[in-house]
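Q: Given only this backbone (370 positions), what sequence would you predict?
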């Protein structure tokens, strides 16, 4: 049996060499046609000997990345810039290419591992794509669609100061205590726009022709009639009419002189600027001070000449229509002006701590701008 096995093995070995040689001839011919690798014919060893196949270092490891770039409508984008970044690669340099006229791009000899592609083109928003390239892989991206870039421009719309002031006055003209009594001469906007001359007269006119103002004047005249104040007017309907006319004349002269004419000439704001923040003490002192100071049209605090001089002027004018025995002399006029300053301070304190809560249409507080 041993001799027979040996003869068979010898015959097989003699037959193997010519068959193997013929196979190599065929393989070499196929390789010449570009269809196979000729080295494979020598990759086998003589039977009975141990063989280990090793490819050339790095030859089969590199891959490729390619693709096509289009716009949202599918049109090809030429000359787009593509940057290839490989964080895990031994090379620290990024590779860059451009898409051709058909929107196609390609990177050859790419090391396997994680990669990131960034796509940019004029007029389009940038796009990034990340993935992993395997050894010897031909990674193809059928389409990369770039969205049209949106031109974002921050535009700060600045309304004319006069328009801002008009809009703010419209809000103030809706301010009524308990929804009834006018509260036009207070602003709850810390940085309210300065009033134009037109708006100063508009507010004054709005105040004196308001139906509630007529009713208040009627009440004042009634109290004066009941107390027989300004007795020179007499009693009865005629006396009431004279008292009503005098009281209304006081309202008109005081409002227009102190809140429209002088503020326009002296460029001062006749409104009370509500504070609403800070300690109780700071708000109290602020309200008291505002009886003798005011904001100018330049937004700076200054002595309130309009209020003080306006009260004196209104008192002097009243001597023209009050009964002779009830007319105020110069001393009494100044005394009444001092009283007016004190009553203005009290009015401001009430305005600061109470009236806003009773004004339904008061706007929300706005913080002062630096």
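A: Predicted residues:
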């Amino acid at each position: 049996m041993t001799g027979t096995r040996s003869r068979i093995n010898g015959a097989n070995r003699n037959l193997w060499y010519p068959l193997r040689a013929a196979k190599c001839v065929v393989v070499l011919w196929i390789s010449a046609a570009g269809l196979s690798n000729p080295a494979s014919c020598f990759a086998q060893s003589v039977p009975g000997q141990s063989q280990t196949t090793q490819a050339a270092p790095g030859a089969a490891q590199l891959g490729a990345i390619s693709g096509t770039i289009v716009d949202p409508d599918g049109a090809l984008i030429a000359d787009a810039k593509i940057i290839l970044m490989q964080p895990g690669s031994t090379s620290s340099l990024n590779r860059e290419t451009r898409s051709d006229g058909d929107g196609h791009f390609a990177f050859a000899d790419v090391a396997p591992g994680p990669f990131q592609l960034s796509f940019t083109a004029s007029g389009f928003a940038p796009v990034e794509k990340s993935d992993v390239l395997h050894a010897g892989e031909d990674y193809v991206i059928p389409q990369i669609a770039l969205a049209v870039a949106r031109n974002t421009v921050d535009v700060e719309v600045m309304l004319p100061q006069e328009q801002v002031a008009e809009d703010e006055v419209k809000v103030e003209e809706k301010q009524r205590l308990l929804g009834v009594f006018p509260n036009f001469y207070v602003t709850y906007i810390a940085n309210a726009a300065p009033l134009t001359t037109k708006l100063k007269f508009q507010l004054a006119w709005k105040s004196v022709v308001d139906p509630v103002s007529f009713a208040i004047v009627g009440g004042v005249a009634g109290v004066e009639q009941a107390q027989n104040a300004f007795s020179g007017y007499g009693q009865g309907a005629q006396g009431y009419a004279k008292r009503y006319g005098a009281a209304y004349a006081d309202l008109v002269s005081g409002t227009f002189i102190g809140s429209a004419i002088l503020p326009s000439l002296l460029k001062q704001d006749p409104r009370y600027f509500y504070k609403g923040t800070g300690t109780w003490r700071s708000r109290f002192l602020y309200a008291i001070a505002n009886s003798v100071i005011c904001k100018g049209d330049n937004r700076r605090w200054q002595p309130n000449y309009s209020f003080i001089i306006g009260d004196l002027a209104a008192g002097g004018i009243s001597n023209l229509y009050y009964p002779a025995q009830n007319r105020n002399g110069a001393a009494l006029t100044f005394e009444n002006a001092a009283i007016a300053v004190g009553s203005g301070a009290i009015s401001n304190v009430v305005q600061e701590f109470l009236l806003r809560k009773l004004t339904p249409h008061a706007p929300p507080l706005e913080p002062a701008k630096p």
